[in-house]
Write a structure and sequence with these properties.
The chain has 92 residues and is an alpha+beta fold. Helices cover 40% and strands 17% of the residues. The model has no long low-confidence stretch (mean pLDDT 87).
Length: 92
Amino acid sequence: MINLRLKPGIGCYGDGAFGHQHTRERCAEMLESLSIDCSEQRDLEASLRSEMPDDAEDEYLACVILEANYPCDNAWWGWQDGDFGLWPNDEQ
């Protein structure tokens, strides 16, 4: 599991070279590290660990939660060039 007790730094947290499902699972691990105990959070984590829905809404919602819990003024959570991570605004 990814340990995010400290503020996460800009960079790649899920390498797309291992496939898109790998990056979704890394995102789920990051959500899990928040230790939010609610059924909606667990459902979102489970969704990320399963097959991607057509609209990828679970990925969008996960990024919204990560941005709310690990805000960074000059960066954004999401997918870029197949990788998942915290990216500087100039790479959006």
